[in-house]
Amino acid sequence: MSTAIAFPRRAAAKARTRARIEAAASRIFAELGYQDATMAAIAEAADVHVTTLFTHFRSKRDLLGAVAAAAGDWFETAAAARRAEGVPALMFWRDLVARAAEAYERDGAAQLVLGRALTGEPELLPAWIAHQRRQVAVMTAYIAGDLGVDAATDRRPQMAAAMLVAGGLMAFDAWLVSGRTGDLMGENAALLAAAEAVLRDGVPGIATPQ
Fold it and tell me: What is the DSSP string of 162-210?
C-alpha cells in the first residue's frame, strides 16, 4: 500500500474517532454535567482508550469547546440551508425555537444540564462567548441578506440578531427554571416582534439608513 493511499485513510479514521468522541462527550456532559463528567467516562462511552482520547483533546475544557463548535457548525449549516430555500431569517429563528423546545421536552433534564454546562463554568466562558458571537454573526448575515442591506453600514441586522440570541437564551433559561411551565413560544414571539420593529423602524437615537 502506498503512502498516498494510507495517509488519507488514516486521516479519515482519525476524523471518525474524533467525531465519535465528541458525540460521546455530548451524551456524558448531558447525563453527568461538566464537573462530574470524567475523561475516562467519555473514553469508555466512545469505546476508545483514554490515551487515544488525550491524543485528540488535551483537556475536558478543550473537548467541551469542540462540542460547542460542532453545535455552531450545525447552526451555521442549518441557517445556510434554510436561507438557500428562501426562508426568511425570522421564520428560521421561530422554527429553531420550536424545535429546541420540543427537544427539551423530549430529553428533559439531560438537555438542561448540557445547555448550562457552557454558561455555568467560568473556565468555559471563552467557548460560550465564541458560540454566542458566531450565532449573532450568522443571524446578522441572514437578516442583512433578507433586507438587501450592508450590515457594515446598517446596524439593524446586528441589533436584531443580538436581541434574538441573547433574548432567546434568557427566555429558555426562565422557562427551564420554571420547570417548563412558562410560555416559551409566547416569550419568543415577543422577541420576534421586537426584532421586526428594530428592522422596520430602527432604534431611537440611531439613524436608520434610507
Answer: HHHHHHHHHHHHHHHHTTS-S-HHHHHHHHHHHHHHHHHH-BTTBPPP-
